[in-house]
């Protein structure tokens, strides 16, 4: 065959320089934007009212194999620590019992968020038109798989090493019973994947990841370390290293719609709704997990909240998006009011409903009560007195025949569930900003705790028709529900949930619960 | 205030805190069951780490078969459509969580494998370039086939990668979702490897164009990939059922068209034209193809085709989908035959008898690995005859 000019040039070049040559990831990445093409049927299954631009770039500039290299290095460090150093230190069994219970909730619920974010970013990968933007979302799809596996690994690790594996070993089967689950599913599952694609990005990336991963994934590592848990910081900080990419994806989503004049009509409303949805659950639940689920306290939740949610996110992060017409959510001020008391209100209800958990809750000790009063003046008169009364009635002892839910009924403090957020509230007792609002629609009553959620429901009631736990279990006896929902340990009779973490305290069984003859009622029926 | 610790103090290393923690811990474990997800039915004899970390991560209400949750989705789409629903696919299952990746990959082993492939790729390219292997490639093969037609095949893989976006969103099980995402990721990796090879050639061969312009023109306007392009577009954008997307892509189009192009054209012919570079990349693509075959065979045959209640119905649907997608794939192959006019003829290699034998290999494999599994009957001779009409 005749040698071409190009082959001759290559031969000549080689004679001069025989240096080995390769190709780096950036040299491939710079062509990605040209990988797509136009055609008639081009569409997405997940359309959006926003117009996403075709030219949007992504900041991390990864190709598939370089992504794998980077993540593999991080995995080696993380799993190496877990499987070698921490195992040799018996670290999994040196965690304070209260915190070990907190991690049953935290790792499991974060896992659900990460899992649903796989689908959420799959949807955005489908919706975006710019190949680089698709590429950024794709890397996030894989990240979310990583995080799902990592959160699972925390439970897996605690199952093997923690002294109370129940709840770590079967959370995926039993988590659905209780009052915290549906609200979690609302913010961490359906809010990420059901709706306008950009609205879902705002929920997941602009609020969930840019705002709440700081307190959830970063602050929790300080609380964990203080309480003897080195597993959680090892895993969660590795998760957090990917979150910056996700925040950048959220930023790029806004950039991709910024040139559309119509975007400003919707964006701030979507952001406001997304923020309120997220904070309505995370503000009380995270505060409760940190402060009531620990022996050693790091700092009051309200301070953490103000620093990361109000100042860092509401101020600095959203401020950076100001040039694209993004404003801090109008509901931020109301959320700030909730950050002080809402988690105390929620713990009161969560403890009252403890048999429907998949973890153990503990009343504050006298030492902790002092800490609460010092940091939240007025705490004792509102909450501490009630806990003293419950303790005096033997709420921790299976022989007492008393669970605090009975106290709520005796004292006529009905517990409602907000239809939109699915968060329980007790309007006659709460110190936070919740007030009862009730609407009738299609022959059914719906309760709401605040104006923001009520507005969302009034404009689109069909999106929030999910039954709450009181409606679902109405007429059912409590021990029956627990047994049916697998809320028992591997002996088939002892509850996973318990109202104490006392070393020598007796554990409640299904029989103890059955003796109470506690039957679920929907409080809305009485209205 | 005695319980508040200074920031930075750690309970595992501070002796006083350690003492308090250890005093609070019971002497014996409170449950005998120490395996996470012990309630999951393992596919093999024992629950694997893959199953422990993946199974039931998805919170699915029990009205989607296999789900463990009670109740409903808490927020729905505008108009009330649920987050995930049985109506997103025509196939039925008694358990959407049954699928298992035969390779038992979760994220860490998956990226570990791919990271090693990247390191090996880098080492290979350094060695290949330093000894000047590029000098042996036939210039026509290099400048026309690799530049234009391998370059255009990048878009085939990129389009199929995109077809996985909605499938990874819509599918109804956790093991499925992770498998689909990994398959999609492999497809974009294929597309990127093709561009990587072209960039590499551009560095070694002065004048070799790195730009994607010519390959894109070939893909979007040329005759050789016309049928392929239209099929890929339909799989990616015109198909709503997530199982049909996966079936059309991985059980019909890619095992036929993809296998012919990758294995029987680029891989088989490369060595005849002095090209020892392309097989390195095609072999990685073939590894991904093989892994995908394992995954999709488990999904469609083990789980859906053999479903105790819906197996017969599902196999009927799969045959119907094959009826729909096979002719398009045949058209894609027929159009692709035009490529043989672009390369120097090598008797017994690029001549009709050799092409026919290659097609026979592809269709024989497909019959054994796919069609027979759902009792799909087809006339191989007639199909190959149709395809060969494109061979001028």
Automatic annotation (TrEMBL), chain A:
It comes from Methylomonas koyamae. SUPFAM superfamilies: Ferritin-like. The keyword Oxidoreductase applies. This is Methane monooxygenase. One of its GO terms (molecular function) is monooxygenase activity. Gene3D superfamilies: Ribonucleotide Reductase, subunit A (1.10.620.20). Keywords: Monooxygenase, Oxidoreductase.
Automatic annotation (TrEMBL), chain B:
Keywords: Monooxygenase, Oxidoreductase. This is Methane monooxygenase. One of its GO terms (molecular function) is oxidoreductase activity, acting on paired donors, with incorporation or reduction of molecular oxygen, NAD(P)H as one donor, and incorporation of one atom of oxygen. The keyword Oxidoreductase applies. InterPro entries: Ferritin-like_SF, MethMoxA_beta, MP_mOase_hydro, Phenol_Hydrox, RNR-like. The keyword Translocase does not apply.
